[in-house]
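Most newcomers find our protein records easier to grasp once they have seen one. To make this concrete, we reproduce a full record directly below:

…
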Amino acid sequence: MEFLAKIWEFLTKLPPWCIIAEYEGAVKLRWGTYQETLEPGFHWRMWLRDEVLTCAIKEQIVDIASQVVCGTAVETTIRYEVDDPRLALLEVIDYDDSIANYTLGLIGRRLAIEPNILPQKLRRDVLDDLRIEAKDWGVNVIDLQIPTFTKARTYRLLND
């Protein structure tokens, strides 16, 4: 089945054109080197020489798994959109996972430093730091919500 997928991928690269949808951002690489950022519409490309990478640029929402740090359970939701397809596609491997993992790290670090922090202050601090980092990835973080913020006890079972 993987072989058929590889053949299909190869065949879709054969036409000397590509069409970028309205909800996509794209970059053109020539021999693996960045050439230009493509706008939505019809574009010519050289077969086997040019490669076009695309990503969704419309607003997206990511739910981040709950984590327990210093006795506080926190769950978050992030709203963002891609502002710069070049940065999003070429400066970070997977901007979606990077945003989620970076947010988990920010929350964990903040709760470890300040275990009795209020949810509003945690949200504000994490959102400010996340916006700064995500800008380097071509991503605009619109909002961060914390729907779950509660004290929790964690127990570890033997042999677990």
